[in-house]
Amino acid sequence: MSNPSLKEYIFKDPNNRPYVWTAIIGIILQLMFFKYLYPFASYINGDSYAYMETAHQNLSINTYPVGYSMFIRLFSVFTHSDTALVVFQYLMLQASLLSLVFTLFYFYDPHRYTRIGLFGFMLFNPVFLYLANYVSSDTLFLSLSITWFTILLWIIYRPSRKLMIYHALVLFLAFTVRYNALYYPLIAGIAFLLSKQSILRKVLGLAICIILIGSFIEYNKAKYYDLCKKRIFTPFTGWQMANNAMYAYKFVPKDQRKPVPKKYQVLDKMITQYFDSTFNNPKYPFEMMMASTVYMWTPGLPLRKYMHDQFKKDSTAPELKRWASVSPFYEEYGKYIIKQYPMAFAKYYLWPNALKYYAPPIEFLEYYSTGVDSVSPIAQMWFEYKSNKITTKFKDFKVDILNFYPILVGTMNVIFFLGMLGFLLLQGYKQRPLMGKGLLLVVCLWLTNFGFSIFASPIALRFQLFPILVMTSFAFLFMEYLIKEATKKE
């Protein structure tokens, strides 16, 4: 069998049999042990319940993208067991991860020790169990993203019409789950350029992606226009922009503040008065977390207060309508403040965010179910709990096993870049051209994700696992190459 498919390679190649059996046994044992310790699913206060409300009411738009809500709604057709959902999420994630691992085995043929190290890192990694235990879009998005990247590797090395269709569908699904996938078509374009197929097929493959994503964007805009007479794709953009700008604005001295245009004066006055009244004595401890989203979500802070002030004459307006209505204005204001104080923005938002990108905090994963021992009525109803209380086999909800992750990620960042530098200096791309193409794809992914994350989104471990896992996979391969070169006999 000269060119087996991935399925044939995994299950029919005798060299892979030990890995397959280890994966099956390892996944079963880990799930059994984990669910014994944590019999209930985990919840993020706000996020999880918003997804469930969207699913329960079958909403076409809501605060968060609707993809995950549609997923759990579909899953509820078969069962309302939270354990079944967690198990399915974990199996889905492991299937995508192991598909990537075997794809790397297939095309790069790494040494046995590299295979064992990479396989073990993906299979016996505790973060995946804690992530899959959450009723959140994180696991679904990570699974789709890993699958998407794996398909890109196959498109580069073994392109086919079927793969181009699979790619478009997976990319579209990922985009409906989380809008971070907005930059994925750019990476896909790089992969298409590297693949050996007709220009027409490349153009059509990219066009399908753009049409699917564009249709979803236009659908959202139409729904938001019906709701609040504003053609916006997602309210997050405006709120995030204003939030990010406030992190810089907070540190601008009072005597150095510039006058703002009349249309911004009411909001600007509320924000500056808040900063003046809380200077060196933050009213909310979370405000001390640099480059966070505290200004978006905390009740009583200026952005939330201004939003509610706009609806004093319409007290029955739903929260989503309020949230969406002010978003375009917040986007304008945020951009204006950033342009007025670019150095403050770079120093107090971009730089702290860059440091967090290097070693992302574990955030909500620091505690089981974010440290809350009860669930909202929607979760109790959805999963048919007898009580609103959730328990574990531990005396508290603290999760210490993941504390090493920021250090590990920072270390793997250094190893990846040193390995990549060595690979380039030794002209490894000439000796191993297949790995050279993979390197180009990974670097494009890293740079694009870095730019998107630093400027536009909060940084936490659960949001950055996709690029971390891809980078770590190639770090294993680069280090093997360097070791081989260093020990090669004359």
From TrEMBL:
The chain crosses the membrane at residues 20-38, 84-108, 115-133, 139-157, 169-193, 199-217, 403-426, 438-459, 465-483. Keywords: Membrane, Transmembrane, Transmembrane helix. The keyword Kinase does not apply. Signal peptide: none annotated. This is Dolichyl-phosphate-mannose-protein mannosyltransferase. The lineage of its organism: Bacteria, Pseudomonadati, Bacteroidota, Chitinophagia, Chitinophagales.
